[in-house]
Design brief:
This protein is an alpha+beta fold. 29% of the residues lie in helices and 29% in strands.
């Protein structure tokens, strides 16, 4: 039986979909996580407790495990495990991205340097320690600019600043967010870069020996102009013209090459304006949250199945994306408080085109909006004959939802 180690952080939405895909494929799963899962006793030695931040020690544990239970692949389901997946795959002589390339995806400043060296359109940027004096930095920055962490995701800590007078407050706010997330005691650093105006898209793709296979281009119809950058609606297929989509694909391919990525899933974020196609970020993993549920290929193949087939070297059937338009809405957190309930879910589900609504924060938990927060309220899914109908369904359904909180 094919055996795959899934690196699953304790806070992820992806566990169920990857486990379900493995079951459908008949793959034996070994779970690697920071904490002992509740059902570890029933997993018959198919669990490894790993520290994703200690790549060397955790790689050694994986190699020792594989001496008695050989692994066909090591797959990270989220950003936090990508470095360990690369290191362990290298040690086990499995197809993998180099550690250097994955490090570049986890460090936004290094990523910018690689894009710049490759001749890709890149915003002017500098880095600064959270201990630097913002009043001295403010005159050196062009406005509008964006202050962001080097390594956080889900738009956490990403804030636009429009003028020098506001820079110090934004810098300190982002610095506090990053310091609060720091786990190794090192002094955190921030990236400060020009704000790139334009329409934004996301690209979901697989790399096979360095060759890019695009699985979907998502339009993001809501403007992402700040001050925070909370993502909401993704819709595919893209409504951009064929030549524009070709430029998006070319820029994504060049960005992956510039980073040195060669194997497995990537998720890229890009902006388009009169100056060209700007690659904002490339991650060495698939789309986050529950967003992958919008994608089906061939006769109902999921994105997770494609990823596991590729990683484990299993045959991959024809897998063009389903012809119907699809979309997802990452439900924003409108205000801070303790969640009491999300009202209107029944009405939202009855909107034509809506085929799924999942609230991922249970009642009684605190709601933390961006930029301090790193979670969405939930996810809503739609399918229709056109992208326009998908977008309309998601907006109509979202209008039915009312988030009720206690102070």
């Amino acid at each position: 039986m094919t055996r795959v180690l899934l690196l699953i952080p304790s806070r992820t939405y992806r566990t169920h979909d990857f486990m379900a895909a493995a079951t459908r494929l008949g793959i034996e799963v070994v779970v690697g996580s920071e904490h002992r899962p509740a059902l570890a006793a029933l997993m018959e030695g198919r669990h490894l407790r790993l520290d994703f931040t200690d790549v060397s020690e955790s790689t050694a544990r994986i190699v020792a495990f594989a001496t008695t239970q050989p692994l066909d692949a090591v797959v990270a389901v989220d950003d936090g495990g990508t470095l360990l997946a690369a290191a362990a795959s290298q040690a086990l002589a499995l197809p993998h991205n180099s550690l250097d390339s994955v490090r570049a995806t986890r460090d936004k400043a290094l990523m910018r340097e690689r894009f710049q060296a490759a001749g890709l359109p890149t915003p002017r940027f500098i880095t600064a320690s959270v201990n630097d004096e913002p009043q001295q930095l403010a005159p050196t920055v062009r406005y509008p600019s964006v202050v962001k962490p080097l390594d956080l995701s889900a738009s956490q800590g990403v804030v636009k600043v429009d003028h020098a007078e506001a820079f110090a407050d934004v810098f300190r706010r982002v610095g506090q967010i990053v310091a609060g997330c720091s786990k190794n005691g090192a002094t955190p650093w921030l990236l400060i870069e020009d704000f790139i105006a334009g329409e934004e898209v996301a690209v979901e793709a697989l790399l096979r020996r360095g060759q890019l296979e695009v699985l979907a281009i998502f339009d993001k119809p809501d403007p992402l102009d700040g001050p925070f950058f909370e993502e909401t609606i993704y819709v595919t297929p893209s409504r951009f013209a064929a030549d524009t989509q070709a430029r998006i694909i070319d820029a994504t391919s060049r960005a992956a090459l510039a980073l040195g990525l060669t194997e497995g899933p990537i998720h890229a974020e890009l902006r388009l304006n009169a100056q060209g196609v700007w690659v904002l970020e490339v991650a060495a993993r698939s789309i986050g949250g529950l967003c992958s549920r919008t994608l089906r290929f061939g006769s109902g193949i999921t994105l997770e199945e494609l990823i596991l087939r590729h990683a484990a070297g299993l045959p991959t059937p024809t897998h063009a994306r389903e012809p119907r338009a699809a979309g997802v809405m990452m439900l924003p957190i409108p205000t801070a408080g303790v969640l009491r309930e999300v009202d209107g879910q029944t009405d939202a589900r009855q909107v034509t085109g809506i085929d799924g609504l999942v609230i991922t924060i249970p009642p009684g938990e605190a709601l933390v909006p961006l930029p301090e927060g790193d979670r969405y309220l939930g996810f809503m899914f739609a399918h229709a004959e056109t992208p326009e109908a998908v977008e309309s369904a998601l907006r109509e359904a979202h209008a039915h939802l009312r988030v009720l909180t206690d102070a």
